């Protein structure tokens, strides 16, 4: 039995490695069918999407990430062998972390990680717990998305709120596709996106940070994907989503609000539409009994505010065992939501690729395209 939790998936198996300030972050994707066209340029757009173009709302780190494909691709196509992918960590300044190595940041993983790993954990930049590790997930997600697109499955995520600023309207799929990466906050409503940006800048001025919510939509998933009981589609999607640091909640469809509805309000009634069994409402979020029901899968993810803040807070000096104030210096994202959007898309894509292979909907060898 594996003790470490660095792998996810049963047929499309993703194993990530690397720490924030180590040499590289990387991923091995095992079980990707042979015959998928794949090159380094496929990854660049997804990785660039991690870094919003607006410097005011992200950390001062300018991480231009270039992918190296180390194995599993030959003559421009996946071979069926494990695909190993790495990105170098160039923008590392570990000095900020020496000063606080005994002062666990409130809200961050420092304290439990130090206890669990006996102080041997790489604490620089949050080490294995850093948001930087989402680069590995985004690389795996790029492979998964490309594979899913061959089967007309599309994964979309966007920012629906930051702090108290909400974009409550229902967006069309075209608006989401076209606008979400146009706005530095990743909100398809560009005006609302600007207000979100202002809220982040204001929080930063106060030495504080903000969280928010990300809305997710998966289109084109056939009926019956998911392996109940324990590998139900909603369980596995949630597991992958909780692997993205700072994720604190996942809802499907009506989610927690369903608890306040009656059965007649919450049930999505079936109806025939162009010969296809559909539902007129979407409270289930596209999953019934752990299986996709053929409607779009809809999820909402809650992201907490960035733990590392300049505002003074209390902590304990673990070397002297004394209470001490802490103001975190260094380059931190005042809100991680915009950077998390591609990681959320990736977490969903790797889970669906795995389940579509398990359901027999994606073959081991792809036909020529
Ligand atoms: C893309 C991304 C970037 C992040 N950047 C930072 C950061 O700059 N500073 C920070 O304190 N936390 C950052 N985080 C959040 C921490 O990694 C996370 O809160 C921490 O590991 C504790 O885990 P938990 O919040 O899931 O409990 C980031 C998260 C993501 C997804």
Averaged pLDDT, please?
95
Q: Total helix count?
A: 9
Helix-strand topology string: EEEHEEEEHHHEEHHEHEHEEEEEEEH
Sheet with most strands = 5 strands, antiparallel
Biggest β-sheet: strands ordered side by side in the sheet: 1-2-3-7-4
Which terms would index this structure?
23% strand; 9 helices; alpha+beta; 26% helix; 5-stranded antiparallel sheet; binds flavin mononucleotide; 369 residues
Descriptive notes:
The protein is of the alpha+beta class. α1 packs across α4, α4 packs across α9 and α7 runs antiparallel to α9. It contains nine helices and 18 strands. The two termini are about 40 Å apart. Helices cover about 25% and strands about 25% of the residues. The strands form six sheets. Strands 1-2-3-7-4 form a five-stranded antiparallel sheet, with helices on one face. A hairpin with a 2-residue loop joins β14 and β15. The protein is globular, with a radius of gyration of 21 Å. Bound molecules: flavin mononucleotide (FMN). The site of flavin mononucleotide has 21 residues, from α9. Flavin mononucleotide binds next to α9.
